Amino acid sequence: MTFSNSHQGRSNLSSVRFDALTGFRCLAACMVFVYHNRKYWRNELHPEFLRLINEFNIGVSLFFVLSGFLIAYTYGEKPLQSGKEYCRYLLLRLARIMPVYWLILTCYYLDKSYGHRQFTWLTYSLVHAFSDKHNLDAIAQAWSLNVEMVFYFFAPLLCLLQRKHIMYVLGFLAALFFIAWGTGVYWHSINGNPQHYFYPLQFLLDASFPGRSIEFLAGLLMASAFKKKKAILESIRYKTWIGFAGIFITAYCIGLFEADVYHQGTDKVAGRLIELLLLPVFVVTALTGLIQERTLLQRFFSSRVLVLLGNASFAFYLVHISYVSLKLRDYVLLPDRNFVLLWVISIVLYFLFEKPVYNFLRKKIKPVN
Q1: pLDDT tens, 189-223?
Q2: What DSSP line would sit under 213-267, residue for residue?
Q3: Which residues lie across from 340 on neighbouring strands?
Q4: What does pTM read for this prediction?
């Protein structure tokens, strides 16, 4: 899930168009919120609408494609110019994501009625998310931060390989997938792999970077096209509307493979293939439209309110379920499942902690001379 709100590169893409991408993050976050709370509305919604929102976990896919674009467009392969450059790049990524995660996790840990002081360095480092048995421990949605961090680790190399030839990227990602899968299977053959690290295959496909890399790759290829000033989708009119319509139609089509309202269409091979191969195409189309076309949707997503919510979307993602949401429900539970209140908390968290801490750390992580 991208949580990067990088504003570098605006000399090439105008501010309003980058703002529209920031606002787009709000949509992705709201989709994930609806997905996680859909169970409370199952008896009130039309079955076909429920089929649609039952697949709103694709909000994570939207984040991943956007992350691939922003990181590749902002950094490219530049971090590989030297070891110091690469270390600075990684430190900036850590400074952007980890402080807010650590703050909420520590509050959870210290709260005797919730955390029970049971979290370890594995949880704080996100290493727990390599395990099928533990990837939902503590702040459950943080599994995707692990996926993001692994992408950040490999992103400069992927950009370098892509500049040489796309087949190098595909070969590298395939090798990475089979190494991870082979590690899990071999570990299982030795002692049963009791914590299920990189195991089983379904976990690897659902919740690891090797399994989700196609979504990041779509964003990376989009960034490459923009940096090279290629005519990406230029012959297609109404890209914005086609992209957004395609995202929701794809979600509905995935839902056609649901066994029942308690399962997702991605549990079936056909649904998974649609998510991995078709959905990123429509996400790229939508993002390209937001950048290239002046439409009502571009104005909407670049509005002050949507940009504010987009900036606070990382905090919202971390508080919308698990500890903060549960703690809030101890005091109040509104009919919207505290949707508005959680956004207010996220905005406060963004301005009082996330943004100032990142700005402070960014100044300390000085550019390489």
Answers
A1: 999 999 999 999 999 999 999 999 999 999 999 99
A2: HHHHHHHHHHHHHHHTT--TTTT-S-HHHHHHHHHHHHHHHHHTT-SSTTS-GGG
A3: none
A4: 0.94
